[in-house]
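Worked problem 6 (solution included).
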Amino acid sequence: RYIYVVRDGRDAAVSFFHHLSHQLKSDSEDSAVVESTFSEFLQDLASGSMPYGSWAQHLSSFDNARKTPGAKLLFVRFEDLLSNLRFEVDRIVEFLQIGTEKKTVDNMIETFKFEWMRKHMDRFQPITVRWKGGFKFIRKGKSGDHKALFGSKEEKSFTKMLQETFPSGLPSWARLYSTSK
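Solution. The predicted structure is:
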């Protein structure tokens, strides 16, 4: 069984940009993995020229896997975790068929919240990565952060990436992430 947590690609791009622009290269004391502007970074990400490909290619690969007969793949949207954490955790428990009692989940639910993660950041901060400027891996934990860095040029680039990857339109579960619904 697999759980695929998906997030608005615009927010994912902003988060990834902050991550890589603050992550020091392994062979440097002051050079970040990414030293470009956000707009340049997004162009590389949207074109698929980054080592991990584009966000849309990533979505497409998991959407195709989801359609495979017998696939045991649950899609969970980050935004749904923020708006209705308990419901999503119950979906995950049911999908995993782990038979966890309601009381057990009740006792754990606070530890799944962003505020708890931030308070206990030492448990989540990668230890194999060096950061510049005191960057924290647990950053904001919210939806819509892309609005601070996305202008019309970035929205067009993002929309083009989606249209090229999904010429027939986004899968229904991903339409939330389209700038041209």
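Discussion: The radius of gyration is 18 Å.
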